[in-house]
């Protein structure tokens, strides 16, 4: 019971925190692009957009930092056995994130906020790019630690414990390299969709056409390659995971028997952990082989033979993850990704036809498309983390062995309820603040006489 509650608690806090991470990275890059456009062209519209979306970026960073702190304490309080076993490895990239990336991001965010009238234009522009760099570095260090849990590398066993002997191997881990690339492009996708949705709402409700048509175009120009690279890199990441975590890939297709070549079902009925004969609907021949191996007739080992192999290798136990989550997590991510791509191509077509600001149907769709990247990101997180189960560190430590021996069910219930209330409040505050400021009109252009007056960093 305590293991399940600890897992639910960590999943809840992680998912809620991960709502903010892609928005922060994506909006930081897009805000930097807007300020770069203003710096190069001196067009007032780009300055106004920089201030407008910079306000939303600051709100998101503030709430995101608060929601992320809790997880550091969960490692020590709920997962003490795990921390004692691999803390010497897992803690290294986390320490780098705190000492390097977080301080880089927070320091230059402060300089960007208060440096408009104090720093030279070039230096001030550099500060927002360093904020974006800091956010990307934070994601890199955290993902390096997570990727080591997925595919441990760069260590030797000493006294029954893994000891890090090659930090470079951790940062060249194939799971990290491809996973990090996917996270960055997914963040760009998220930021671009959010910017597009806000711009579309403004265009539908009387916002400044000259301003928000530019942000809508920029969002679409970034979104199309971002979502395409996200999907392509995700395909290659599937091959990497098929090599190092074959159980995860087999579960994503509910493939209980070994196949060669392997089809990919668009839908199925059944196929959970207690149903080994699902009814697959609309099978695409060879597609699973391509996704899992990059070969037309690639072989995918089924869940049943993998379970037998793991039982012989690691001892008796159930090594099959939650098949329902894996199967539908993969399809939610893939189908919504395809839908996002279609919407973005529709937007580019509207730009080409010069109907972007007049197409009420597209603008309505673009507003509601804001929910898509959050569903995709959550589905991808569930696919990655649930697919590793029952391992907390693949092949080294089972999740049930990572729990703190003294943590009680009562305390877990109390803290879980507390986190639900806290995160619910923070999420509501974030949503209302983002909604309020995204619906405000951008400040009017400065009068010529005021051209040299200080420019506030964010909009009030």
Explain briefly what this protein structure is.
With 460 residues, the protein is mostly helical. The protein has helices at 2-41, 44-77, 80-114, 121-150, 167-171, 174-204, 209-244, 246-252, 287-293, 303-314, 323-352, 360-368, 372-388, 409-438, and strands at residues 155-158, 161-164, 264-269, 279-284, 391-393, 397-398. The radius of gyration is 24 Å and the shape is globular.
Textual characterization of the structure:
The protein is mainly alpha-helical and about 450 residues long. It has one domain. Helices cover about 70% and strands about 5% of the residues. The chain has 14 helices and six strands. A hairpin with a 2-residue loop joins strand 1 and strand 2. Helix 1 runs antiparallel to helix 4 and helix 6 (about 175-205) runs antiparallel to helix 13 (about 370-390). The N and C termini lie far apart (about 50 Å).
The helix/strand series, from N terminus to C terminus, equals HHHHEEHHHHEEHHHHHEEH
Content-based structural category: mainly alpha
The end-to-end distance, rounded to whole angstroms, is: 48 Å
Helix content estimate: over 70%
Tally of helical segments:
14
What's the domain count?
Answer: 1
Q: Hey, roughly how much beta strand do the residues contain?
A: 5-15%
Task: Report strand order across the widest sheet.
Answer: 1-2
Number of strands: 6
**Largest pleated sheet:** 2 strands, antiparallel
Average pLDDT, rounded to a whole number, is 85
């Amino acid at each position: 019971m305590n293991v399940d509650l600890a897992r639910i608690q960590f999943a809840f806090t992680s998912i809620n925190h991960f709502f903010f991470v892609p928005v922060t990275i994506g909006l930081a890059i897009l805000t930097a692009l807007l300020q770069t456009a203003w710096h190069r062209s001196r067009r007032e519209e780009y300055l106004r957009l920089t201030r407008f979306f910079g306000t939303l970026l600051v709100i998101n960073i503030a709430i995101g930092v608060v929601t992320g702190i809790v997880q550091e304490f969960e490692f020590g309080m709920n997962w003490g056995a795990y921390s004692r076993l691999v803390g010497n490895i897992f803690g290294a990239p986390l320490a780098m994130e705190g000492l390097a990336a977080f301080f880089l991001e927070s320091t230059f965010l402060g300089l960007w906020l208060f440096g408009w009238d104090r720093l030279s234009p070039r230096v001030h522009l550099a500060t927002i790019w360093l904020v974006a760099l800091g956010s990307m570095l934070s994601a890199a260090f955290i993902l390096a630690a997570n990727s080591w849990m997925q595919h441990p590398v760069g260590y030797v066993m000493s006294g029954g414990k893994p000891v890090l002997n090659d930090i470079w191997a951790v940062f060249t881990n194939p799971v990290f390299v491809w996973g990090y690339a996917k996270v960055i492009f997914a963040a760009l996708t998220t930021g671009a969709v959010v910017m597009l949705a806000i711009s579309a709402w403004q265009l539908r409700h009387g916002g400044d056409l000259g301003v928000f048509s530019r942000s809508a175009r920029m969002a679409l120009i970034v979104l199309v390659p971002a979502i395409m690279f996200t999907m392509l890199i995700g395909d290659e990441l599937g091959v990497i995971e098929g090599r190092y975590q074959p159980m995860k890939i087999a579960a994503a297709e509910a493939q209980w028997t070994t196949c060669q070549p392997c089809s990919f079902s668009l839908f199925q009925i059944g196929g959970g952990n207690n149903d080994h004969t699902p009814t697959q609907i609309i099978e695409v021949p060879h597609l699973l082989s391509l996704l899992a191996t990059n070969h037309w007739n690639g072989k995918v080992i089924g869940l049943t033979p993998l379970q037998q192999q793991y039982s012989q290798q690691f001892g008796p136990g159930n090594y099959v993850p939650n098949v329902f989550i894996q199967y539908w997590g993969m399809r939610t991510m893939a189908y919504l990704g395809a839908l996002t791509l279609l919407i973005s191509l529709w937007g580019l077509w509207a730009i080409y036809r010069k109907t972007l600001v007049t197409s009420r149907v597209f603008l309505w769709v673009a507003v509601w498309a804001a929910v898509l990247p959050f569903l995709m990101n959550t589905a991808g997180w569930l696919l990655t983390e649930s697919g590793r189960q029952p391992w907390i560190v693949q092949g080294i430590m089972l999740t049930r062995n990572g729990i703190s021996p003294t943590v009680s069910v009562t305390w877990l219930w109390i803290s879980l309820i507390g986190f639900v209330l806290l995160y619910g409040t923070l999420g509501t505050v974030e949503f209302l603040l983002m909604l309020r400021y995204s619906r405000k009109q951008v400040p009017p252009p400065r009068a010529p006489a005021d051209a040299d007056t200080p420019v506030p960093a964010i909009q009030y």
